[in-house]
């Protein structure tokens, strides 16, 4: 292009040419803008057109993947397009747009409206379509959680997150990355019952080990909050014995709670982790949780006074771990265990005697403890206040009712299902080529034939 | 309780004809009618008269160290001194003189001249024995070598060098030709091991001796039974000890006075049996045992207390036990087992008392056992917690109610619990397996 100077001459041709150039430049700009908007519009139309059948949706997915970067580039201007799409019919497209839209930083005003939008999307989207892009869905939901927390209204997030989990899961045994987020919301909003419902399901497939650790840890905390100590023990046990290449902080915190719950539920703490726990855990966990191990030792000695002094001395450490409440429950569980032992030896016992034997301060305290235990169903007894006597009764359960038979029957059915699953997995594993290769290399060789190679994959 | 009746030595009477060691007891045979181990303060002279040799001295020293009564102490030490002077053990002599501390007057002081004479004689004898033994060894006459080593063993034993004595006796093993020799070696080894308080050797040599039954005559069999009984007692295996002591035949007589007296056999056997046998065994092996009855005649208090226990007169049984205790604490083999045996006997008595009843009034039971109700309650609580008595205490009315565990309910509970544990374990296992598989797949895909 010639320099402008050359057009300074009063040449009508050059003026014309110059004006023509300017106009074409602006038209170029407009065109690209228009093309940008047009490409969005084109995308929207394509989404609307291709969301009908499954094969269409697959080709749509390819298109969307290619258009992903441009979507992210236009993230601030996607709002009007979102209104054109229907989350129920065009879930996949909507998801891509939504993910790009929420990628940027969000302020408080925007947070509340985007929270609404995401919640509506989650409730109305189609599961099959979003499962084609699980990562996007997960990141959208995670941002949803962040925004809900930003607004300090975790309760708003509980129900949508539950729906999200149900839609993302390929089966009820599948643990997604959203499970721990959901439990976190339940914990923060103190809505434990909803959390418990998810904990009742059995988990077998896991995407990321970190999800499992967090899920079991939060699940343990929820169960503790609901006083379901057996379930808590099971969940925390899973964290502590899971395969771990290196020690992680979640396992350490879980171990601390595991010791305390084990004392409350079983009255004792097994000094060694089971053999199937990872070697990393076996070596390191105890060293990192020394005050709790000391607490467990003191508990097993049986002297309440010593236990209480130890707790007092180390109160700060327990408090900094947020475990002080649990520690106090452990101490009171010791009284309970001592009283339970008395039921094995005595038929009736005076409250004064109970107070003496269990090292309580007065018969009134003994009465309170016994009353609480009767209410919780931990012992069967009647208190005669006139004589100051407690009469211990037998467990009235006779195992003769229909409910009991049903319970036993359903237990048997469940065990059979689990057993079958185990057999299936065993068979699958025996045919797995990786396993066979490893086992084949390390097997004993007694005969000439044993030196043959185990069938490997042949690259023909 | 006391032996005022003038019964002559029943062992001699019962086996008047048979091949029994008819040799009379030592000078205290006139006193044989009074039981020596009884509830009365121990008659030291009579007690010491039961034993000979080194064990007599050791027992006297032990009594002196354990006894509170200074008169008895001095009496024991005096007799020990006299006994040692008859022998050649200067080491024990020094020990006893030190313990006497000059309290017995000038006759019982350190006789240094005697010591040096003995030691000189030692040296000479030892050289002589050594030269003899070397001569025999060069001549390779088995019998002489064996006797040479035996003499050495006897020499060392007399001088208190027990380890060397043991080694010498053992070395005769290679030169033993007849089973009689083997038996002799075993008996010597057993004797020295008992003195050294190494009862593992005792057991092994007893079994070794029992492998040659053709040379075993009844007194030897009895001796071996006593020895193994002592070994079991030391190892706290009271049931086995009782069985062994009860097998000792009357042929023992006084032939094993270097180790044990028949009174001891009766006492140890009786107490261990009472502490460890159940009722049927007690009846069959102790009360109806004719041979053992003769032994028990020597310690009538033990006989009485066994009978009382069997017929449920617990108060008098426990009273006899209490009376016997001070003297039993002076016994060199039994003293550290007395407490355990007594506890076991008392617990058995308590359990046996409650066994036939559905409900027991604890006040009457406390009377029967001569203890307070609260003390009894504590003892019963310990037994119930230990699962030895199946009962529950009604502390308000002070009644003990028998309670039999409901097997059916317990089984149901266990079944449900096992089911839950199985479920939990398998699910956790499947989860872990899936995690491991995922890791393996990741690693494999990374390698590829």
Structure description:
The complex is a heterodimer of chains A (460) and B (448). Chain A is mainly α and 460 residues long. In chain A, 69% of the residues lie in helices and 4% in strands. Chain A has helices at 12-50, 54-73, 79-84, 91-101, 108-124, 127-130, 134-150, 154-168, 178-189, 192-199, 209-225, 229-241, 249-266, 279-288, 290-301, 304-313, 315-320, 324-345, 351-357, 363-376, 402-431, 433-441; strands spanning 174-175, 205-206, 346-350, 381-384, 389-392. A three-stranded antiparallel beta sheet of chain A has the order 3-5-4. Chain A has a two-stranded parallel sheet with strand order 1-2. In chain A, strand 4 and strand 5 form a beta hairpin. The model of chain A has no long low-confidence stretch (mean pLDDT 82). By secondary structure, chain B is an all-alpha fold. Chain B has helices spanning 10-14, 44-49, 54-66, 70-86, 90-100, 112-139, 142-158, 162-171, 179-196, 199-210, 218-234, 238-247, 262-276, 279-287, 290-298, 300-310, 314-328, 338-354, 362-368, 373-385, 407-447; strands at 359-361, 391-394, 399-402. Chain B has a three-stranded antiparallel beta sheet. In chain B, a hairpin with a 4-residue loop joins strand 2 (391-394) and strand 3 (399-402). Chain B is extended, with a radius of gyration of 30 Å. Mean pLDDT of chain B is 83; it is low at 1-32. The interface between A and B is large, with 45 and 38 residues.
Mean pLDDT of chain B: 83
Count of distinct strands of chain A: 5
Shape of chain B: extended
Task: Determine the fraction of residues in helical runs of chain A and give it as a percent range.
Answer: 55-70%
- Give the overall silhouette of chain A: elongated
Report the biggest beta sheet of chain B as strand number plus sense, adding barrel if it closes. 3 strands, antiparallel
Q: Say what oligomer this is.
A: heterodimer
Distance between the termini of chain B: 94 Å
**How are the strands ordered across the major sheet of chain B?**
1-3-2
| Helix count from the secondary structure assignment of chain B | 21
Q: Give the low-pLDDT segments of chain B.
A: 1-32
